[in-house]
Amino acid sequence: MKLYLIGMPGSGKTTLGRALAAHYALPFLDLDAEIVARAGQVIPAIFLQHGEAHFRQLEADVLREIAARPGPLVLATGGGTPCFHNNLAVLNAAGITLWLDVSVDTLAARLAAAAETASRPLLATAGPTEAWLRKTLDARKQFYEQARLRCTEAACSASAVAAQFATAGVALPPA
After folding, report:
1. Among 56, 71, 72, 156, which residue has the fewest nearby CB atoms (within 10 Å)?
2. Using CA atoms, how far apart are residues 70 and 50, in angstroms rounded to an integer?
3. Residues 76-127: pLDDT tens digits?
4. What is the per-residue pLDDT for 114?
5. Exposed/middle/buried for 72, CB within 10 Å: 0-12, 13-18, 19+?
């Protein structure tokens, strides 16, 4: 079983992904970290030197490689991952997708730190964070809503998600 976490920047995909991986004793991967390892440069540098289109193709390539790997894992995707190159279909075909549906107010508060914004190239050039988040969520929501499961809590916990999995009949290794 592969579990893919999707959602906006600041929704908690990496934090929850690590917690779920520990809870179920599964490997955890962060798609952005995998892209950085493959490209040999940080994401802001990829955007700056090669542009977003190049980054999105690299993201799709790395995602497909991870989805094709045997064995279970938990993967935190990038916020835009499901919205490009038919990536959401790949995610849904290869495992269970979980949308972390967090309010714009919560996202803005989490991303308020200058270091957070600087490490996210689309946010770094976006202007007012809250306005960018609202506009971007409006554009991405049609993709996120196609996730098989959804967590609407501001801070989804591993135990709350595990309970949701049990209710939905999602088969995971024993915790």
Report:
1. 71
2. 31
3. 999 999 999 999 999 999 999 999 999 998 888 888 764 555 555 656 555 5
4. 42
5. middle
The phi-psi region of residue 153 (left if phi > 0; otherwise alpha if psi is between -120 and 50; otherwise beta) is: beta
Provide the number of structural domains found in the chain. 1
Residue 120 lies in a domain: yes
Q: How does the average pLDDT of the chain come out, rounded?
A: 89
* 76: β partners: 5, 30
Place of tokens 């600041």: 10
Residues annotated in a binding site: 10-15, 32, 56, 79, 120, 140
Binding residues for Mg(2+): 14
Binding site feature residues for substrate: 32, 56, 79, 140
Which residues participate in the annotated binding site for ATP? 10-15, 120
Token digits for 153?
Answer: 């809590």
Task: Report the number of secondary-structure helices (H) and strands (E) in the chain.
Answer: 10, 5
More confident residue, 154 or 17: 17
Check which CATH number belongs to the domain holding 137 and give it.
3.40.50.300
Q: Is the pTM of this model over 0.85?
A: yes
- Among residues 36, 56, 11, 54, which one has the least CA distance to residue 154? 11
How far apart CA 73 and CA 96 sit, in angstroms, is: 11
